[in-house]
């Protein structure tokens, strides 16, 4: 099995694991009446979702060992593709036509990217100065995107995608450096870059949680698209990665990225939104039967409040002689 095929297979299993974990967490959240850390810690289903997430992360790290950033990171969109049939199966419904269309577009776009982004296993890593420079530039971008202003959900989603993409790029450096037997396992490079990975991975998680407060569809699409953009920028500019096929390959990659982005947006918007509860409007038609009954009760209450159920009878009112209280 060559490096490209290994990276694709590992990315596929990682996407399925991430999708299964997401579906499990969504179902758990819908069934939990008392949310909280202690409640989750005592729930076996939550621990299964944690195990699925951990397995998916390990598979993703393994894929970064065999594939370039420009290959592995776009394949993260397969999580949405895998979540569609899994979510429909758990919910007991059929996959909608919109979901099928989004899935087809995503797969076609990713297929074009696979042709141009395939290559040998990565052997370049970021040096400590390069990693620090990337961390500084990304931190400034995250700070600018996280400032107060309009459309905070999409800006926080973009920042989350950048943080996650940089974390993956730094993870690849740690993975390649650790598996390279020419140097010590716990070198200064490995330790520094590993600390940066933890920082950006945590930042990406927190930023995504903030982005999803106003809804899931559009922010999820932005996170999914910003992640490979940040990782590919690092791979192409600092790690010596190249797209195959020259100018024609570059054009094919651009078309594939556009089609895959269209599919991701379609999938992120395909989930049905909950219908908000609408308070009943007051009756304005005096001829409506219910309105007539309410009018009669109101008129009767003027003379004998005790005749109307659940109406108190004030002591200072006297019942007329022709009306007998019940």
TrEMBL record:
<feature type="transmembrane region" description="Helical">
    <location>
        <begin position="157"/>
        <end position="179"/>
    </location>
</feature>
<keyword id="KW-0732">Signal</keyword>
<feature type="transmembrane region" description="Helical">
    <location>
        <begin position="102"/>
        <end position="121"/>
    </location>
</feature>
<keyword id="KW-0472">Membrane</keyword>
<feature type="transmembrane region" description="Helical">
    <location>
        <begin position="127"/>
        <end position="145"/>
    </location>
</feature>
<feature type="signal peptide">
    <location>
        <begin position="1"/>
        <end position="19"/>
    </location>
</feature>
<feature type="transmembrane region" description="Helical">
    <location>
        <begin position="245"/>
        <end position="265"/>
    </location>
</feature>
<feature type="transmembrane region" description="Helical">
    <location>
        <begin position="45"/>
        <end position="64"/>
    </location>
</feature>
<feature type="transmembrane region" description="Helical">
    <location>
        <begin position="219"/>
        <end position="239"/>
    </location>
</feature>
<keyword id="KW-0812">Transmembrane</keyword>
<keyword id="KW-1133">Transmembrane helix</keyword>
<feature type="transmembrane region" description="Helical">
    <location>
        <begin position="185"/>
        <end position="207"/>
    </location>
</feature>
<feature type="region of interest" description="Disordered">
    <location>
        <begin position="307"/>
        <end position="326"/>
    </location>
</feature>
<protein>
    <recommendedName>
        <fullName>Integral membrane protein</fullName>
    </recommendedName>
</protein>
